[in-house]
Amino acid sequence: MGVSRILGTRTAWTTVGDGEFFCPGCGGDRNYQRLTGRRRFTCLGVPVMPRGETGPVVECAACGHHYSADVLDHPTTTRFSAMLRDAVHTVALAVLAAGGTCARTSLETAAGAVRSAGFDDCTEEQLAALVEALAADTGRIFGEPCGPGLSIELHEALDPLAPHLAPAGREAILLQGARIALADGPYTPAEREALTTVGAALTICTDDVTRLLTAARTPS
């Protein structure tokens, strides 16, 4: 009988948590168990000597595969959709507030972008009311540069999302904001500043932000 069949190791797993995660093996949201384990040497299949601890690992309840704990850093599909929806909504409000006039064309473009992101019942009137409330709450005047409060809101909405977006996805959000700004005419200085803040929060380099904002002005 071979040595490998006589001696071996066995891991006894203990569940220390559970929840829902995005399983890279299944390619979708699944339930998981978070496990820690104790390894033991075995002789003829019988545990005989402790060999230390292992884990923690994340076990998918569907496929049974084990993953390192950092897999939980990836948002679930449901969470990712909510983050994307909130990000587009925040960018739209920031650009509209920077634009100053809340022209009908800008509101229509913004509402279309927000609805496409998941706020199905968003209307132009709702966005206009939110922009007015935002200005009243912060004491801003329409058309002013992006103040610290609005800049913080953009970073809070975009910073957690950016690492989970491909470059094309980050650029798409910036271009949506650019189209809202351009719907009623050329960029104002305040709109350009707001869009630059959006680009920075999305970790798009300054040169690429300039390139994208210029490209958005060119009819396709």
3D structure, described in words:
With 220 residues, the chain is an alpha+beta fold. The chain has 2 domains: 3-73, no CATH class; 77-216, TerB-like (Orthogonal Bundle), CATH 1.10.3680. The chain contains 8 helices and 4 strands, in the order αββββααααααα. The chain has helices at residues 3-6, 77-99, 104-117, 124-138, 148-158, 167-182, 189-201, 206-217; strands spanning 7-23, 28-43, 46-60, 66-68. Helix 2 (77-99) packs parallel to helix 6 (167-182). The radius of gyration is 25 Å and the shape is elongated. The N and C termini lie far apart (73 Å). The mean pLDDT is 86.
Q: What's the helix and strand layout?
A:
Blueprint: H1 3-6, E1 7-23, E2 28-43, E3 46-60, E4 66-68, H2 77-99, H3 104-117, H4 124-138, H5 148-158, H6 167-182, H7 189-201, H8 206-217
Antiparallel strand pairs: 1-2, 2-3, 3-4
Helix pairs in contact: 2-3, 2-4, 2-5, 2-6, 2-7, 3-4, 3-6, 5-7, 6-7, 6-8, 7-8
